[in-house]
């Protein structure tokens, strides 16, 4: 078991420095350098051509929308856009990389020197400096056969599908984030979350972490408190949810602190995050000897975006997220705290879509931050990845508003949604969840409740109408929650007064 | 049966006039291949069935009055570095033995769309690395002038096929002289078009920023016909120039008048003298004198950076090649060598690349890996890219003084097989005069200049023009060809005796 | 990597470079190739210092920029064509020997 220092002790002795590298898989129709579909889920090796399969003689051609998406992301991150830049080959051998070099960008990224204002849970804003955003291509996917459950270690051989090879990626790299102290994990999470919101608003990616459209690598180093230096860093990969980003940073802070406090030094290496156990393990050692032999890609010509083109793209940018939050808060009538909680839970977009589907703002907030947030937390996924859509929430709320469901029954509908039982309406029917407002059935239940609670009935007859609550409760219990509470109350009062 | 000595242009006329069928023409060439190729070894693969089927289809089109192009039905040979759907493509390497591409190179598609039957794939130095075709993993090609001698390289197969009348036309590729130098030493014509003038899609890259596909023929006119057919913009090649090919055949006609009045010809001071065989220099001087006689004005130009061209080339090429050849890793296609035990993918890659690549390929991969390594990049690759700029500037200055530049194509005539095999530097010197054009991207042609007195073997003269002025090399090349042929009283190739036994 | 010596390459360097290039050179090959590479390198090392700081590099012989493809799907290969050259395949995928290295 790896030694960890307690988080408080770690922060008492060290200043953390964070760095985030986020890969965004674009939602273009085709791959970065060829006309193959860039969609998910095709049969293995059915979305390939000589180019993305790296066949001898094939040549790449740049996808215009890939470049436009990169520029738009750069602009949204307040970056400068290169007037002239080139693609470069990053040379290394790996079986899922068809050419044994990745077509990427090296010292001439398309976008550089930007920043993003990241709002934390308490409303404080941290400015995160963006070093660069550059274009590159994804690799194929390997399936490991033999050995235990698809793991690479112990596998006898691997099966490679190149459908994903060549799908456009934008890599967004921050400069080291220092001076945030104990809030480093929160800053990391909030940054990735707000970056995702931005990507979604730009409509350049599906941006789902659980699907791998958005992948975060977390760099962390510790320096002795007040020293102002940077320590040796580790790069943690495979972090695929917002809460994992936060947990991984926290874990690495504690692990680094334990190693350093014990008098050892940190190994510069890649580490892997394990979602299930909440720990990182050592991956490949990243020595300085690793030599990618970058050089300009001779089969592609430079990209030189005219300033006119850049301005045209700037005009397509969505509203600035901070301004947008202020506008939405006013429109929805949320308190500062309600708004912060909504943003902090990664629910802003979900709530917005739910409201757009006709749900009252407070009802939308109540579902996402209450019932659904609890379920996401229980299963350890991000809210956006829970599997419930704003449209479904709107349908459930519609059934509540129509009197078909009450809140308690609505929760059962969400159970059904997560179990894949169909649409909310189908679940209501399938599970027989609709509220009973039929007087015949209710009347019988009310009579039973009166008979069983004669003393309560007497109080009501004496004019103590507030006592009706006890009888309503009894009726609801008998009807297993499916009674229309308002109608039950009316019936009780009709019968007893 | 007589040798199929007819040029592609006259074959096209004969086909159009109905004097001959494509099946007959194609069969004649297949017969010639059967007769001489065991001695020449120009071909790695002969597609008898495919070529005859295409020829028959051509004859049907012709009969129906719907030929696809002027060259419909004229057979052609294709260098084995170009991807041919359904026809093995090895690049002269063991590592690609048996690989059958599932797609056609753009130039091959254009040949098919124009109705040219493909006779087969021609031999070459492995991955086009060499100047003698001796680095082919499948054995060398022999020079039809003297079977003990090299046919040049890397495209010795295409040049020898044309020189030995096995094919009227062939495609080659030229990275540092691989079309022009074999042309010179086999007494044939070879053209390296302007970089970007002909699509590279489907050309298995040696050095992407230097490679060009071009015609290998016996006459300048045939080269122009083939160049017009394969040239032009290709959206699949990002470095392809979006401009029309130009009237190259028209330029040949103008040149065939034998009149060069008003044409300024620059003799490049640095491409001659020391290191050049006297007989090669004598034939070159004779060519210059003939052009002067035809009205050309001759000026001497200096390109001082050309002395660094060879070093520049041997940094840029290996660097690009080392990365290009990384894809040959035994995972997706080609050779897979599995060492004993239960080797990892990594171990299989290493073993396969060791077994599948020849010495010259290994030398260049290691050199290129070195030139790109961190700590060396600026001193080598970075520096080479800068010298490349200086060489381009020298060309710009020279073309300010002259319309075309001329030099001997290669410093020597064909040397003996094996003579330079273990002396890489000596081998590299064969491309001294041809390399600058590749570095700057300018077009060049090699036409036969006659036989060297000391060995009776052919030499070539090279004509270079500014980028996109390919028509100039055709005009001057055609004029020179006409002046020399008139002097000789017939084509130089009529004097080749290597295959007469 | 050792210092750039300018004009020679050691057997160890050749071994390291072959390792980077994933070529399993035998001792005999190293003996054979290292001296040849040294000679070649000595010759091409003459290029150092030829061009000054102010000379821009040329990466492409013909200066084009902004060559793009529209984002439109074009037909590619069938899985059968894609796998036609594979040394081994299984489940419509390329079968490769076990991969050493990190968890993916």
TrEMBL record, chain A:
Domain Asn/Gln amidotransferase: 349-496
The protein's name: Aspartyl/glutamyl-tRNA(Asn/Gln) amidotransferase subunit B
UniProt keyword Nucleotide-binding, yes or no: yes
Gene name for this UniProt entry: gatB
Enzyme Commission no: 6.3.5.-
Record PROSITE patterns: GATB
Family membership: Belongs to the GatB/GatE family. GatB subfamily.
Pfam families to which the protein is assigned, alphabetical: GatB_N, GatB_Yqey
Quaternary state and interactors: Heterotrimer of A, B and C subunits.
Catalyzed reaction equations: L-aspartyl-tRNA(Asn) + L-glutamine + ATP + H2O = L-asparaginyl-tRNA(Asn) + L-glutamate + ADP + phosphate + 2 H(+); L-glutamyl-tRNA(Gln) + L-glutamine + ATP + H2O = L-glutaminyl-tRNA(Gln) + L-glutamate + ADP + phosphate + H(+)
Claim: ATP-binding is one of the keywords in the record: yes
UniProtKB/TrEMBL annotation, chain B:
Alphabetical UniProt keywords: ATP-binding, Ligase, Nucleotide-binding, Protein biosynthesis
Ranges for domain Amidase: 24-473
Annotated active site: 79, 154, 178
Record-listed E.C. numbers: 6.3.5.7
InterPro entries associated with the record: Amidase, Amidase_CS, Amidase_dom, AS_sf, GatA
Catalysed conversion reaction: L-glutamyl-tRNA(Gln) + L-glutamine + ATP + H2O = L-glutaminyl-tRNA(Gln) + L-glutamate + ADP + phosphate + H(+)
NCBIfam families: gatA
Quaternary organization: Heterotrimer of A, B and C subunits.
Role according to the record: Allows the formation of correctly charged Gln-tRNA(Gln) through the transamidation of misacylated Glu-tRNA(Gln) in organisms which lack glutaminyl-tRNA synthetase. The reaction takes place in the presence of glutamine and ATP through an activated gamma-phospho-Glu-tRNA(Gln).
Family: Belongs to the amidase family. GatA subfamily.
HAMAP family: GatA
Name under which the protein is recorded: Glutamyl-tRNA(Gln) amidotransferase subunit A
Source organism per UniProt: Nocardioides aestuarii
Top-level taxonomy: Bacteria, Bacillati, Actinomycetota, Actinomycetes, Propionibacteriales
From TrEMBL, chain C:
Residues covered by region (Disordered): 78-104
Enzyme class at the top of the EC tree: ligase
EC numbers on record: 6.3.5.-
The keyword Metal-binding is assigned to this record: no
Record InterPro entries: Asp/Glu-ADT_sf_sub_c, GatC
Catalyzed chemical reaction(s): L-aspartyl-tRNA(Asn) + L-glutamine + ATP + H2O = L-asparaginyl-tRNA(Asn) + L-glutamate + ADP + phosphate + 2 H(+); L-glutamyl-tRNA(Gln) + L-glutamine + ATP + H2O = L-glutaminyl-tRNA(Gln) + L-glutamate + ADP + phosphate + H(+)
Keyword entries, A-Z: ATP-binding, Ligase, Nucleotide-binding, Protein biosynthesis
One Pfam short name: GatC
Gene3D superfamilies, sorted: Glu-tRNAGln amidotransferase C subunit, N-terminal domain
Job description of the protein: Allows the formation of correctly charged Asn-tRNA(Asn) or Gln-tRNA(Gln) through the transamidation of misacylated Asp-tRNA(Asn) or Glu-tRNA(Gln) in organisms which lack either or both of asparaginyl-tRNA or glutaminyl-tRNA synthetases. The reaction takes place in the presence of glutamine and ATP through an activated phospho-Asp-tRNA(Asn) or phospho-Glu-tRNA(Gln).
UniProt record similarity statement: Belongs to the GatC family.
Subunit structure of this chain's protein: Heterotrimer of A, B and C subunits.
Protein name from the UniProt record: Aspartyl/glutamyl-tRNA(Asn/Gln) amidotransferase subunit C
Protein's organism: Nocardioides aestuarii
Taxonomy of the source species: Bacteria, Bacillati, Actinomycetota, Actinomycetes, Propionibacteriales
Gene: gatC
